[in-house]
Amino acid sequence: ESEKTGNGRAIPTDPQADKTDYSRWRMLDDGGRQTWQYLRTDEEVAKWPQTAADKYFLGLDTGAPEVPPAKTPIASVNNALSFFSRLQSAGGSWACEYGGPMFLLPGLVITWYVTETPIPAEHAIEMKNYLFARQHKVDGGWGLHIEGDSSVFGTSMNYTCLRLLGADPEDPRMVKARGTLHKMGGAIYGPHWAKFWLSVLGVMQWDIVNPVPPELWLLPDWTPISPWRWWIHMRMVFLPMSFVSSKKWSYPLTPLTEALRKELFPQPYESIKWSSNRNSISKLDEYYPKSWLLNTVNTVFVNIWNPFLRINRIKKAAEDWTWKLIQYEDLNTGFANLGPVNGPMNLLSCYIQEGSDAESVKLHREHMEDFLWVKDEGMLMNGTNGVQSWDTAFAMQAIVYAGLGEDPRWQPVVRKGLAFLETQQIREDAVDMEKCYRHPRKGAWGFSNKLQGYAVSDCTAEGLKSVIMAQALPGIPELISHDRLRQAADILLTYQNADTGACSSYETRRGGHWLELLNAAEVFGNIMVEYDYPECTTAVVIGLTTFRKFDPDYRTAEIEKLITRAVAWIRTNQRPDGSWYGSWGICFTYAGMFALEALAAMGETHESSEAVRRGCAFLMGKQRADGGWGESYKSCEDQVWTEHENTQVVQTCWAVIGLMYAEYPDKEPIERALRMVMRRQQKNGEWLQEAIEGVFNKSCMISYPNYKFIFPIKALGMYAEKYGDVPLL
Ligand code: LAN
């Protein structure tokens, strides 16, 4: 059966079907842009066979051969590479799922619904499958991320999402979810972003949404709170959010949203006092309570500014300027947008401003596909439009660290990775970069692809480092010119914070930490400005130490100065117990690996440095009887080491890599750890997925599935280079 929809797309499957045909899904890698295609005809299927990577992602049998059991670390690395190299795409990159956060898909589906964008049936089916697969069995709810306890945010948004995708409210799983939502108080106890989305959908009233005043964009640049000073992710979400809120735009009531008005609240919809519930928030959701300052500002906007002072001229000026900035964001990202939150919001803004048939709306609709991923559990929304550049750089480095960059089996893998990174280096700064407050980016790499176009400090560093390492191998051509490598070094030199000497993520810090007092999101910490990160700082240091060995005469003094100050900051960032807190991986093992590498770059080892000894002692104190490490995501939330119930391969490798950089004098604990890692390797060379690996904003976890290949390869390879390829098992 096939039905023509609004945009002329054929939908051959019934959206109420249980499952799509997994042999029809293909990942299309188009110059670093990844989208999943569902092949509708047998002809297409015959022409375009599923790759091993497709099958792996979909949970189908990849046909990977069994490999002889490894006794030595390099044998284990070879086994791992025989599996992992099959996952490399034709374009040279590694892709993977980048899920974890449970608040992304609902934003997209609400946007689709209110912009009347047809949802392909195979999308609806597999999205429902994913959300049900990730529903907590005990209470039927969802949390902020896949491993988090149920919250109002997770449950109200995913329940709504399922309903928009066609789930039946009487389905026992929906009944259970609704029961839990009501027990938690109902949707009015959700955080700011839930209130925003549900008001857009028309199942809440705008009076319940704390102010998101676009007027802030009219402030001159010099004020300490001007939005250009905020962390890029906050200001790029705030931007379309303020545009939409200013218009109080809501989708007209439909039978479905009318039903949701009954389902999302334990009390009758008509009885809810919206304005007095602006600050209602469940304890289960409230990671970062709003400050007295924010509460005061909100009160002023609600009670004084909006009713009395907000004249039309100012309102219009604010909306016009935010609209202009939204267009800059679209232009400078080729409509791919910074991330999965502002992407749908920008789509909605364009729809409101320019209407359904506008070119901008069409392009946005196309790029929503870039965020979607299909796996054995169904379809989910990734945290970015992919992990292409980041994972590819790491994978290449791991092979070279293992001393296998010249091995005829693996050199082609490195060469393909290099060819990919060549295409992904950003070659031009953003258009009107000052006007839209963009950081320089010419010569940089981003996390995902060039199209998205956001330079990141550590992504540029890892990109540069892997290119230099690869191009130094005999047999590998120089694909990226010396001049272009200098441009990457130039970018790295822009990333040092003047006050501390450390590095942040996308920009240098532009505002004071006190701006965190205006953090309105309730569910995240450290979102308002850039912070100093040991991970990013180390990456920049290592990127530049690698560069200066290759090109000792270029900007020598500046590079020297950056490195010295940055490593000095790493020392001051060490906590009294010897650890470093990680912001992008879980948690102390991740940051410890980076910090110890930075210190090693200055020649500081266990023998020569007190800081290194304390760092190692911290890690050694956490090694378990089985030789491994295991750290819970609670470490990130609470900022204290918290054991995971199981030992984790990835964290074990992080710890061991750190110890090896530190030249830890005793190799016995390192060997014990690697034995544990080797024992967990499967017969086909792979490792299985364990607990979630990454984090952002302290409270939200995110998956890095390729890490279970990359870091064992690096750790085992480093061991063999250092101690020889001796049998460990
Ligand atoms: C990422 C992904 C990559 C990550 C590293 C490169 C690993 C890190 O070292 C620097 C920061 C960076 C670039 C990063 C920042 C925050 C992101 C973009 C994410 C964790 C992926 C998703 C997250 C984004 C903020 C999710 C949307 C949520 C909001 C609160 C807007």
TrEMBL record:
Residues 78-325 form the Squalene cyclase N-terminal domain. The keyword Lipid biosynthesis applies. SUPFAM superfamilies: Terpenoid cyclases/Protein prenyltransferases. GO terms for cellular component: lipid droplet. Gene3D superfamilies: 1.50.10.20, 6.20.120.20. Keywords: Isomerase, Lipid biosynthesis, Lipid metabolism, Repeat, Steroid biosynthesis. One of its GO terms (biological process) is ergosterol biosynthetic process. Pfam families: SQHop_cyclase_C, SQHop_cyclase_N. Belongs to the terpene cyclase/mutase family. This is Terpene cyclase/mutase family member. It comes from Eremomyces bilateralis CBS 781.70.
